[in-house]
Design brief:
The chain is mainly α. It contains four helices and no strands. It has one domain (3-89). Helix 1 (3-28) packs parallel to helix 4 and helix 3 packs across helix 4 (73-89). The longest helix has 26 residues, at 3-28.
């Protein structure tokens, strides 16, 4: 596959991973009252999706640094990066 096509697909997959992890973390990771407070303050699905996207890109690049790119472990590093970034962003360190 040409390099440009692979790069575009990687970019799209990383964005989708970040969105899915962010929305799932927002919808399933908090109690009902926490969702009500977050919706009142504006920290909703879009914010969590954006933080998830940032985390998936960080996880992907950590996978590149660790030379996991030829295998498909970068999917796992992207998911771990998104989850860890959202978890730390919420203040649970």
């Amino acid at each position: 596959m040409p390099l440009v096509t692979t790069a575009i697909m990687t970019f799209i997959i990383l964005i989708l991973i970040g969105i899915v992890v962010g929305v799932l973390f927002n919808r399933r990771g908090r109690s009902w009252i926490g969702r009500q407070v977050a919706d009142a303050t504006g920290a909703g699905d879009v914010t969590y999706a954006l933080v998830g996207i940032a985390g998936s890109f960080m996880g992907y690049h950590i996978g590149v640094i660790l030379e996991l790119l030829p295998t498909y472990l970068w999917y796992l590093t992207a998911v771990i990066g998104a989850v860890l970034t959202i978890w730390l962003w919420r203040g649970r360190s």
